[in-house]
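Ticket reopened. Same input as before:
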Amino acid sequence: MFRYFIRRVILMLPVAFGVSVICFLLVQIAPGDPLTAIMPVDATADEQAAMRAIYGLDKPLPVQYAIWIGNLFQGDMGNSIATGRPVAGEVFGAVQNSLLLAFSAAVIAFPIGIFLGFLAGYFRDTLLDRTVTAISIAGVSVPNYWLGIVLVIIFSVNLGWLPSMGAGPGGSQDWAWDWLHMRHLVLPAVTLAVVPIGIVARTVRALAGDLLTQDFVMALYAKGMSRGDVLRHVARNAAATALSVMGLQLGYLLGGSILIETVFNWPGSGFLLSNAIFQRDLPLLQGTILVLALFFVAMNLIVDVAQAAIDPRIKRS
Amino acid sequence: MKHFKKGFATLLVAASLCAQGAFAQGTLRVGMTAADIPLTTGQTDQGGEGMRFMGYTVYDSLIEWDLTSADQPSVLIPGLATEWSVDEADKTKWTFTLREGVTYHDGSTFTAADVVWNFDKLLDETSEQYDSRQAAQGKSRIPAVASYTAIDDYTLEIVTKTPDATLPYQLAWILMSSPAQFEAVGKNWEAFAASPSGTGPWKLDTFVPRERAELVPNTDYWDETRIPKLDKMVLIPLPEPNARAAALLSGQVDWIEAPAPDTIPAMTANGFVISSNAYPHNWTWHLSRLEGSPWNDIRVRQAANLAIDRDGMSALLGGLMVPAKGFLPPSSQWFGNPTFDVRYDPDAAKELLAEAGYSVENPLQVKALISPSGSGQMLPLPMNEYIQQNLAEVGIEVEFIVVEWNQMINLWRAGAEDPSVDGAMSINFTYFIQDPFTGLIRHLSCDLIAPNGTNWGHYCDPEMQALFDQIKTTFDAEEQDAVMRQTHEKYVDEALFLMVTHDVAPRALASTVKGFVQAQNWYQNFSSITME
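Engineering reply: fixed in the latest deploy. New output:
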């Protein structure tokens, strides 16, 4: 197991390098100028050139990349062009907020998705199955930013029960696990949970349905095993694939919540990324994409290791 | 996005909203359009909104804008300088008498040496207080300044590169940070940003980047009439228009900047107040004047201006615009009496185009650069589509080149001749037109032809240049105003731009917000506000 883990970590290194190159080049390809964010629009060409030199944007791209990656190895992600603040602080603060949101959504989505999926798989081709399938498809299909707006109108504007924006009355820095703060989390987390509920439910339904028709299940029943024990075996067989899907979903929840964080003004990585894109804030953009991509890679690693732990066949392959 | 907003507005109305009131007496919570708290160190970023909320609140400039009247255009008034004059013999030499008894929020005293220190902060790269971020914002605002000297504690001398009567307007941009506080925080601007110190009517109390800033009154402010009446003002970045609207409607903020026009009916129906006023803003098509451009023909330019149904566009924007009668808003002190009447007259437009050799059957074909969004651009897509339709009706066929806003700024800086504009003959841009330079000179001056300046269209006319020179060398304010009017008349009579509309800076306020007077200015005075 340890060797398997080490091998996977080593395999991560070229992936991380590739990610760093791609995220550096991607933001360079996009049209626009980072100086737009920090200079008046009517700054003269000379003033722009001087500022470009100060920020090192006048250097050739390979040199800029070498400087960036060199600083990165020393733990310095540079400073945001738009705000002047260190990128590391900006990104990790935002990622922390996104993790809070993503894990909250996962806590809502995964148990519900698993429960619904198992239910549908067990009672396959019944009304219950069709109902769960309809819920799953709706969850995957409904644009979650639209759902977010509807929830805001109902629960914030109309009923006044929950706040529509922000990460607490005093901002995310003062976050505490009390109702005053957690009420800010409810609407974005529920909105964000809808898509993974659908995906996890559909995956688990397919897995459970498939496993329940396999010969080993019949064999277990034939051996006199109780329904509960049989389901436990089915669950264990389904767990590896379900875990893989949930791990990927957690990655998507962290990196793919730009719209939700925008609708709810949640100060997370998606919101940060969206602003960095509009401002062409290259260091911030590169830093955020890199951290999110590495998080995704790390999630894959964790899932793979967990899968191998649950299902020895994976480790052997 | 258009459908997204419309859908949201419909839902808002259908939901029969019930808003809550403010939670704290004396606290005003503002939802800004900016994505971040503007730079807090002195020279702000985030454009006009940055100066409005973090500039003239925490800091002062030597010369300021009068923000007390909603009825009259804003004019310059004494700020940290009480008097100023130019030397009769040497028109490059200015003397400023500074206000005595002014203290920064940290308790240190404001003197002429501080002004020199602040200029060095922006202009002298060798000074220890030089700040590239503030320099990026401030340096281009004071192009006339050559040198500056503190004669004594309360007398300052500024020498300009050439005689330039627009210097007072330039100085209204430059905000004074505290040298003592810079020293106290270890000569570090990042540390200064967290606990800034100016001489303004508000002090920054709390600052969470990207999330909120809390300002409290400076009770020792030198102008007693501008000591804030509120206990606190909270600034919250809310860049997404629907999130801003929801925050207001659910009672999380008391004030939002720039509500989307389609959310306004729901707001007014629920007791919110929409405040708006004319101000020096211009939504226009800047025309290419390169050789071969069809816009070189005055008949075509005038025809296009006569083809726009501005009242129809006003309906599109929920009435939140001032139809253009010129390049400057009709209420401007520099509007003058142009002879060309900017109006909707498609028949006259067709006649002019026929004279120029075009008709609906044989239309003039032009390419136009537009963006789908952008700072101050109002609703650029539907507005431009509306114009496209208007122009097609008289015989001008417009092909749009749509680019993202950040790229649009680059194309604007590059100018009409640059290959990157792909042969576009106009660019839709909004302009800050608050002073002689930003209002008139920079758009058409021969020495500012892009990429050296912001004369996008490469226009150059000796008569106009003479007027610009006259503005810069007329030191009597009233006489200078007269030259400004004359210049604007030429702008309008020769239809040098497609003059479409002016924004009215709408903001939505809870009914509990009292005492706000919306000045005809990009900046506003928040000191008079109270919460009921």
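Residues 88-316 of chain A form a domain with the MetI-like fold fold (CATH 1.10.3720.10). The two ends of chain A are 13 Å apart (CA to CA). Please confirm and we'll close it.
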